[in-house]
Design brief:
Distance between the termini: 94 Å
Bound molecules: nicotinamide-adenine-dinucleotide
């Protein structure tokens, strides 16, 4: 019997159901079985959550805690997440269909994010400005930005939430978290942990439900000061337009179309192996997936044939399948989108070397499995090179020179991540500098750290998560100038003195 969580909105320190009693069934991407049933919030519930966050922020209760107190809270949350990690990983795996082992890795990363921000909270946040006048005390102080709407995607639900929640708490903000309607369970678990850790009432609020009904009001309401959003480009544009009406701060982590460049002088064994992981991990449902392979002409056949052979051999399976190497797509709708994307690529002239369709394997028939797919002979004019599929689809382009590799790598509206494989360190440095993407890996693909900023150039987003910049998103900067020896300015002639003369 699946767990039911119908009082699953957390508003003003209370668990409650939706105001109209609505619920949503969460079904497994692996076999469509019922995973859980959760509350489906209304616009009124979203408004209640904003009111709770606003009241808690305006009361000054939490924002007046010292940085050290807030660090201790975030460290406590990390401890409790560590205690519950196995249980939460199972919830994450159930909603997303990803293998439990991948969810375990995600949880370890989530905990490291909370620990990092707990540590960063203890560093110095204010700055003295020396103005060359001993009567003046001039300092720049950091204050919480206020009420934040934190809206997340379904591919790494808790990890993406942690990149927002941990710095928001350290900064002293109050917030409303809205995870994807497809993957609510780990956010419910996080709220329980934050409550147990002693987060004051009204600081952390959770609403669950559809983007248009529950997410949109969070981005238009004047009581919200900042929207931090991770998701697709179209939604990001809509959020930015809406938020502009009340001049909210906006932080956006959007899609990517990430070039993975292999030069002929690279360690090809490592490059090929990593190229397979870069694009097929989590069935390509990764914003930084290496979906665009750019390969030097002289090694094209060897590299592409090897990757296609590896793609054909990938074993897919559900969360509990210990032999599986990757899992299903998130939903039937997403499977349809990826299928259409491949059909269009083939119509545009791409050559299919592996996959290309929904899996026909009997054990996967009830789930949303798409075969790892390799498309050769692609060009930047084709939509499969320009558009994000967010599925297990690799496009291959060929280049003849370093300059061409760079030009191809930058020929995208996106700018999230990219990689370069070569044994020539000067060439690697030149290419890394020239690529207009927020993260560049040299002879590697995929690692990120809580200490290092993550985010996109161009249409991949605005702002940064992780690292010190990930905290700065949640801070307002105020300059306080104190004159310890007040005196007349003497700028204008004193009119009273003039009249008395
Ligand atoms: P999505 O844009 O469909 O939805 C993301 C979130 O926005 C969900 O919670 C959804 O309910 C909400 N939403 C939808 N419409 C809304 C509206 N009008 N107002 C407010 N909220 C609304 O994205 P998705 O399909 O959940 O996620 C996949 C996308 O996320 C991909 O494009 C991927 O590249 C991107 N992503 C980016 C990063 C990154 O770090 N840059 C990380 C993960 C995912």
């Amino acid at each position: 019997m699946p767990a039911q969580s119908v009082n699953s909105l957390f508003i003003d320190g209370q668990w409650r159901g939706a105001s109209d009693g609505s619920t949503r069934e969460i079904r497994s991407p692996h076999d469509s079985s019922l995973v859980t049933k959760v509350s489906e919030a209304t616009a009124q519930d979203a408004s209640d959550a904003i009111a709770a966050a606003r009241a808690s922020f305006d009361s000054g209760l939490f924002s007046s805690w010292s940085w050290a107190q807030r660090s201790a809270l975030v460290a406590r949350i990390a401890d409790l997440l560590e205690r519950d990690a196995e249980k939460i990983a199972m919830l994450e795996s159930g909603d997303t269909g990803k293998r439990v082992i991948e969810a375990d890795y995600d949880l370890a990363d989530v905990i490291s994010v909370f620990r990092y921000y707990a540590g960063l909270g203890l560093s110095e946040h204010d700055r003295v400005v020396h103005v060359g006048d001993e009567r003046i005390d001039s300092r720049v102080v950091s204050e919480p930005v206020g009420v934040c709407a934190l809206i997340g995607p379904w591919n790494y639900p808790l990890l993406q939430a942690s990149w927002k929640v941990a710095p928001a708490l350290i900064a002293g903000c109050s917030f409303i978290l809205k995870p994807s309607e497809l993957t609510p369970s780990s956010a419910i678990a996080l709220m329980k942990v934050m409550d147990e850790a002693g987060t004051p009432k009204g600081v952390a609020n959770l609403v669950l439900g559809a983007g248009a009904v529950v997410g949109a009001p969070l981005t238009s309401d004047k009581r919200v000061d900042l929207v931090s959003f991770t998701g697709g480009l179209a939604t990001g544009k809509a959020i930015m337009a809406t938020a502009s009406q009340t001049v909210k701060k906006v932080a956006l982590e959007l899609g990517g179309k990430n070039p993975n460049i292999i030069f002929a002088d690279a360690d090809l064994e490592a490059a090929i192996d990593n190229a397979v992981t870069a694009v097929f991990l989590h069935s390509g449902q990764v914003c930084s997936a290496g979906t665009r392979l750019l390969v030097e002409r002289s090694i094209h056949d060897h590299v592409v044939e090897s990757i296609a052979a590896r793609a054909n051999a990938i074993r897919m399976g559900g969360p509990a399948d210990l032999t599986a190497e990757t899992g299903p797509l998130i939903s039937q709708a997403h499977l349809g989108k990826v299928s259409l994307y491949v059909e269009k690529a083939l119509a545009e002239g791409a050559q299919l070397l592996a996959g290309g369709k929904r899996s026909t394997h009997e054990s996967l028939a009830k789930g949303w499995y798409f075969e790892p797919t390799v498309l050769d002979n692609c060009r930047t004019s084709m939509s499969c090179v320009q558009d994000e599929s967010f599925g297990p689809v690799l496009t291959v382009e060929t280049f003849d020179s370093e300059a061409e590799a760079i030009a191809l790598g930058n020929d995208t509206i996106y700018g999230l991540a990219g990689a370069v494989w070569t044994s020539d360190s000067d060439k690697a440095a030149r290419v890394a500098k020239a690529l207009r993407h927020g993260t560049i890996w040299i002879n590697d693909f995929g690692p990120y750290k809580a200490q290092a900023e993550w985010g996109g150039f161009k249409a991949s987003g605005i702002g940064r998560e992780l690292g010190p910049s990930g905290l700065h998103e949640y801070l307002e900067i105020k300059h306080i100038w104190t004159n310890t020896s007040p005196a007349r300015s003497g700028w204008f002639e004193d009119s009273l003195e003039r009249e008395s003369k």
